[in-house]
């Protein structure tokens, strides 16, 4: 019972933290949706003991509250994978922009040289 109370309090704190980040516009909507859904799921599993027991038995976990931490761990791993994909895409874009900037600087310096020669 004590672990359930801690889980409920922890999930409520997490939910309010996510809502506060959304309110302050520190978290984009796409990520807020993911985190919001997971905080609601975590809260439901923390409150609904029979449901948590059913899910635990379904996946073969003896100690039902450990299922909460498994759900949280899987969520974090999925979000980290999503961020890794996003970062990889951003790295490619930065590389392309850097190359374009270098080409533009080279073109600009050649134009400056040509102007100096014409004078």
Offer a few descriptive terms.
119 residues, single chain, 89% helix, mainly alpha, elongated
Secondary-structure topology with pairs:
Blueprint lengths: L1 H22 L5 H19 L1 H11 L5 H54 L1
Can you walk through the features of this model?
The chain has 119 residues and is mainly α. The protein has one domain. The chain has helices at residues 2-23, 29-47, 49-59, 65-118.
Mean pLDDT: 87
Distance between the termini: 87 Å
Number of helices: 4
Query: Biggest sheet, in brief?
Result: none
Low-confidence stretches are none
- By DSSP, the count of extended strands is 0
Query: What is the global morphology?
Result: elongated
Strand content: under 5%
Question: What's the short version?
Answer:
The chain has helices at residues 2-23, 29-47, 49-59, 65-118.
């Amino acid at each position: 019972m004590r672990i359930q109370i801690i889980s409920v309090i922890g999930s409520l704190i997490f939910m309010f933290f996510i809502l506060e980040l959304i309110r302050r516009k520190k978290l984009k909507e796409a990520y807020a949706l993911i985190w919001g859904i997971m905080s609601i799921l975590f809260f439901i599993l923390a409150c609904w003991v029979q449901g948590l027991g059913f899910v635990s038995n379904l996946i073969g976990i003896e100690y039902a509250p450990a299922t909460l931490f498994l759900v949280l761990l899987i969520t974090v791993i999925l979000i980290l994978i999503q961020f890794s994909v996003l970062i990889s895409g951003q790295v490619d874009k930065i590389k392309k922009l850097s190359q374009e900037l270098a080409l533009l600087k080279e073109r600009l310096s050649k134009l400056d040289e040509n102007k100096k020669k014409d004078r």
